[in-house]
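To whoever is covering the structure queue this week,

Two jobs came back overnight. Logging them here so there's a record in the thread.

Job A:
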Amino acid sequence: MAGLALECDIQPLLHGRLESADRFDLIPDSVREQLAAARHKCRMDNLLLLAEAEKAIDALAKAGVLPVVLKGMDIIHRYGMEFDLRRMDDMDFLVPATQVRETMTALASSGWKLPHRIYDSNWAPYHTGLESTGPIKVYLEIHWNIIQEGRYRLDPADLFARAGELAIGGRQVLGLDIHDLAVHTLLHHVSSHFHRKLKNWIDLRLLSLDTGFNWETVAGRAREWGGAPGAAMSMRHAGSLFPDWFPGDTVRLFGPETLRSLALKPLLSSHPLDMYRKTSSRFVEILLSAAMVSSPWRLPAALRLFRGEPDYLRDVLDVKHHDS
């Protein structure tokens, strides 16, 4: 059980739920100890990450940059979740493209180490990473879009226009509109090649219970972004894992995607947690990426190779550091 919980990235949450229900009698002592150790590690890791996040937010505030906080850091603060129940691998901030230079310069001045290249998730740059300089590395990703440019059609300015206030450690930041966050969660699952981690679905469940949340709005926005095929396949995966959370009538709002399903049928996995098999294969990654495009003319954008850094990053990437 502990191994499966690790694979699904829910060890801390599983420990917390068993603890709150006083049902550790359901598992062997050895498993309880492993879950407790994982939760303790999550607590320590997240404490460090949150402390570094607050310093980064302060540095950006001095530079006049108000970021949108993404993913786990948003969910934990939006819903008051105990911070040792959801593991965060890193922190993700979305900033306007016009302020990327100020963002990177401010973070470099406050001790963050700039990268030598841009991360090219799905071979098209829309974010770049930094790392702290302390003995334990903490990673921060700066996004100027949340999805692959060219593959989808999204003006990040719309995200900022719909974003709402969010507080982290008494500091004001922004959080995505709940429907934007839901679509991002679905499309992130596509870019992660339908992995086994369940925390994305737990996040989506929390969003779906939020006042004002509407599944039809999510499906419509996915279509607006040109991400309906990927969102539909992600919802199929979610519905197969959690039919009570994401019932069939909700899944069908995103479209049948019958032809894509038939085309990808040879890749279907028999494992109850997996949608497709061999997703670690580069060939399968390319095939899935191609299959999720909304229109044939977007296929080149989905498959193109890394294009190099945007003009507004080239100068800050050359900044020298004391530990270079």
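Job B:
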Amino acid sequence: MTVTGSALRVDGLRGYAQGEIFLLKKADDHLEAEVYNTTGFGPVPADAFAAIDVQRLAADTGFDLAWKNPRRFWMMDAATVNLVGEPRELQGLMFRMQMPVGFDPSRDQSAMAYHPMQIRRVTTYEFLSGRPVFLLRSPQETTWVMQTFTDHIDHGLREADLPGLAARLALPEGWQYKAATLNRALTITTAGVANIVPDNLANMYQGCVDGVNNFDPWD
């Protein structure tokens, strides 16, 4: 892990368990979020993350609502993430604040399966040559690269299952899934807005759109 100014770089991320907390305040007809992530403080233990009480957390921090993103596992090999503010301890775990995003806590991410959305983020994701990547392809021929997987919905899902994940997915007409081995390093660089899409198991993918990728790994 390297912190340079407001940027955090973490290597060896593939399969790294991370947890994320959204602290939310009501603002007119929407919610404003502060987003905290454990990446950089070591893989988050499942039991410690599960023990976080979001109702008590909201009360203790003075927010209207706290929401806990299901524990996820990074699927890139290295990442550089822009940080905001100082690290914070939340019920015994250390988190770093990241760029706030628009968010609707009433909707599980799997409820938005195969519906692309945008979030604000400044990141560089690196997938090394010779390593596998797991891809969705939309009917519009956009490639989506898995950035995290989760066992929140499919409790038996493990990294070793990802090459055959298509058999577990409810792919809409025109959508495809495949695993590919990179013959060169893939870089996805987001300078403000990231295009993302979840599948029906709440695994998350980033879109190869707007020139963020150095090549299309589907081809």
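Note for Job B: The longest helix spans residues 54-61.

Please reply-all if you pick these up so we don't duplicate work.
Q.
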